[in-house]
């Protein structure tokens, strides 16, 4: 049997991998690799394969690998590696070794004949009663724990620092390691360290790791034995050690993880000696569990903060507060719900990009500010932001919590965005002075929810209503208005949005490109006080003109529309339609304007 021993640049072993005869092992940074090296930035996602032959290993550099593989100091694409020889990928050394027939695969499989072992399983309540005989030393070591955590830039560096701290705090320990129990109950040694560097390698007991980590309630386990009764089959149970412990650590990796310690008491194993020495050993286990709890709490806090930071860009503060400190993920699962969807797009971005080819960074900064205005107003009005769609922002209301005011809040956000852009127009010294925007709002059923992991969370909404909102945003250019609503949204806000905040104006019945059913569209306007260019009575006259237009009375429609002030550009679209047909509707007129393209 053969295996690969992986060591880092400092010579510390961090993994052993059995070489199967029927398939190659893949080496790389990607988590799906057989030998995954995520901590080595000089290793490609998939770097090389190791294929066992009869008495040697063939190493091949993969075509997609961007980093080299070295053998005997030379860069290679393929090479033959004999037993005992090494290849180097990044800063990781991979050595091929042969195992004796009676030696355990990966060094972590228990033997069939283990020595007599005394075992203690610790509960949290039992450890609370343990007293430290050397409390001052333990406290002094713990004062370095914040520095250990803060100074670790990578997971691998954190493992190194934690093992050294455990050896400082537990004077009886000769070796410390971090072990992982995978879903198929394979034990992996993630990192190990020994007090004496020349003492040899460290190979933990699979049985002890499983006792501590495999149960439904992981707990600390201590084992002691007589080293004179061990055999060469028992890797932890050697003359170097006469005790070992394993303590679970929550959140140190994606699998079940624990601190593994081993040392020598220099006492014979019998009931009396074991009882006399329990004071020190129990205190060692308690100290290990204390470090475990602190590390677990810090890592949980870090994950929580990363999750909150990831969600903060999508959710308004009230929604985050409602999700709670534990971030109830069930609330974020995709579900079908009533939503009001907003598409908000920057006008003329492509032309500005062409004209600002010598200052693209400056343009990017201005665009970022403009998108920031949109997202800020969406969030401040209780909405959720999805991904940016190029130079457009997607927002929606109605998820993760239903609301009777979702359409009203969406309209308030749209009006606030319009107000922000209008207030900056004409101010040459302002980055947003020459930006305009178009907004489409639609209401209906959709599926909304999170995709990805919580640490890399994204939220999205999809369904016909999303497509409609996008189409309406596009129609704002042709209808010459800033904000367009579909009829369901208009009906929801007609009685609920105070007229001093916002007003509605029916514009037309249209069939957007790519859609099967006509849509009655409305313009959302600010209140008359904020937008005196169009009075309430003028809006009534305009809507009468629209009704006449739909009904086919284009003479009366023209009269009503033509009475609008010249500053009102919405009239231009319908008047143009009427003028093109000599004020006479087509013979097949059904009141719907069809758009041949987006």
UniProtKB/TrEMBL annotation:
<dbReference type="Pfam" id="PF00498">
    <property type="entry name" value="FHA"/>
</dbReference>
<dbReference type="InterPro" id="IPR029787">
    <property type="entry name" value="Nucleotide_cyclase"/>
</dbReference>
<dbReference type="InterPro" id="IPR001054">
    <property type="entry name" value="A/G_cyclase"/>
</dbReference>
<dbReference type="GO" id="GO:0035556">
    <property type="term" value="P:intracellular signal transduction"/>
</dbReference>
<dbReference type="GO" id="GO:0006171">
    <property type="term" value="P:cAMP biosynthetic process"/>
</dbReference>
<dbReference type="InterPro" id="IPR050697">
    <property type="entry name" value="Adenylyl/Guanylyl_Cyclase_3/4"/>
</dbReference>
<dbReference type="InterPro" id="IPR000253">
    <property type="entry name" value="FHA_dom"/>
</dbReference>
<dbReference type="Pfam" id="PF00211">
    <property type="entry name" value="Guanylate_cyc"/>
</dbReference>
<feature type="domain" description="FHA">
    <location>
        <begin position="25"/>
        <end position="76"/>
    </location>
</feature>
<protein>
    <submittedName>
        <fullName>Adenylyl cyclase class-3/4/guanylyl cyclase</fullName>
    </submittedName>
</protein>
<dbReference type="InterPro" id="IPR008984">
    <property type="entry name" value="SMAD_FHA_dom_sf"/>
</dbReference>
<dbReference type="GO" id="GO:0004016">
    <property type="term" value="F:adenylate cyclase activity"/>
</dbReference>
<feature type="domain" description="Guanylate cyclase">
    <location>
        <begin position="340"/>
        <end position="473"/>
    </location>
</feature>
């Amino acid at each position: 049997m053969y295996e690969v021993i992986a060591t880092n640049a400092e010579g510390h072993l961090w993994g052993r991998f059995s070489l199967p005869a029927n398939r190659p092992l893949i080496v790389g940074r990607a988590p799906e690799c057989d030998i995954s090296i995520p901590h080595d930035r000089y290793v490609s996602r998939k770097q090389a394969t190791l294929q066992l032959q009869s008495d040697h290993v063939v190493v091949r550099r993969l075509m997609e690998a961007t980093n080299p593989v070295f053998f005997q100091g030379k860069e290679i694409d393929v090479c033959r590696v004999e037993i005992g020889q090494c290849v180097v990928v990044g800063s990781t050394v991979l050595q091929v070794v042969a195992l004796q027939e009676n030696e355990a695969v990966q060094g972590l499989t228990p033997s069939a004949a283990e020595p007599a072992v005394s075992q203690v399983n610790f509960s949290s309540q039992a450890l609370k009663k343990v007293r430290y005989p050397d409390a001052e030393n333990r406290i002094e070591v713990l004062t370095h724990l914040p520095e250990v955590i803060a100074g670790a830039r990578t997971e691998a560096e954190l493992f190194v620092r934690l093992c050294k701290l455990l050896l400082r705090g537990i004077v009886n320990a000769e070796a410390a390691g971090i072990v992982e129990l995978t879903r198929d109950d394979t034990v992996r040694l993630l990192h190990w360290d020994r007090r004496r560097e020349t003492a040899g390698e460290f190979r933990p007991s699979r049985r002890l790791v499983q006792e501590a980590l495999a149960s439904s309630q992981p707990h600390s386990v201590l084992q002691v034995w007589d080293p004179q009764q061990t055999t060469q089959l028992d890797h932890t149970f050697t003359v170097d050690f006469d005790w070992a412990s394993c303590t679970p650590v929550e959140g140190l990796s994606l699998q079940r993880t624990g601190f593994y310690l081993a040392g020598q008491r220099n006492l014979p194993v019998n009931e009396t000696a074991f009882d006399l020495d329990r004071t020190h050993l129990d205190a060692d286990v308690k100290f290990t569990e204390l470090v475990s709890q602190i590390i677990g709490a810090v890592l949980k806090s870090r994950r929580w903060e990363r999750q909150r930071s990831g969600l903060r860009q999508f959710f308004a503060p009230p929604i985050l507060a409602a999700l709670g400190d534990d971030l109830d993920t069930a609330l974020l699962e995709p579900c079908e719900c009533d939503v009001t969807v907003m598409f908000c797009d920057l006008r003329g971005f492509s032309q500005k990009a062409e004209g600002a080819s010598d200052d693209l960074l400056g343009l990017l900064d201005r665009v970022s500010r403009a998108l920031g205005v949109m997202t800020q107003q969406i969030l401040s009005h209780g909405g959720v932001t999805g991904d940016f769609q190029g130079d457009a922002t997607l927002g929606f209301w109605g998820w993760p919590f239903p609301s009777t005011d979702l359409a009203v809040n969406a309209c308030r956000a749209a009006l606030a965005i319009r107000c922000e852009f209008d207030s900056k127009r004409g101010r040459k010294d302002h980055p947003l002075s020459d930006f305009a925007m178009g907004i489409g709002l639609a209401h209906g059923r959709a599926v909304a929810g999170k995709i990805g992991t919580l640490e890399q969370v994204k939220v999205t909404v999809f369904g016909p209503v999303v497509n409609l909102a996008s189409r309406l945003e596009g129609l704002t250019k042709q209808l010459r208005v800033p904000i367009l609503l579909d009829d369901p949204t208009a009906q929801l806000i007609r009685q609920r949005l105070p007229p001093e905040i916002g007003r509605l104006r029916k514009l037309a019945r249209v069939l957007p490109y790519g859609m099967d059913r006509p849509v009655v569209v409305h313009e959302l306007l600010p209140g008359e006080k904020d937008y005196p260019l169009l009075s309430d009575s003028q809006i009534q006259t305009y809507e009468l003109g629209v009704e006449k237009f739909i009904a086919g009375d284009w003479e009366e429609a023209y009269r009503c529309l033509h009475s609008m002030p010249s500053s009102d550009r919405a009239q231009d679209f319908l008047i143009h339609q009427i003028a093109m047909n000599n004020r006479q509707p087509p013979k097949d007129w059904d009141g719907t304007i069809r758009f041949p393209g987006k």
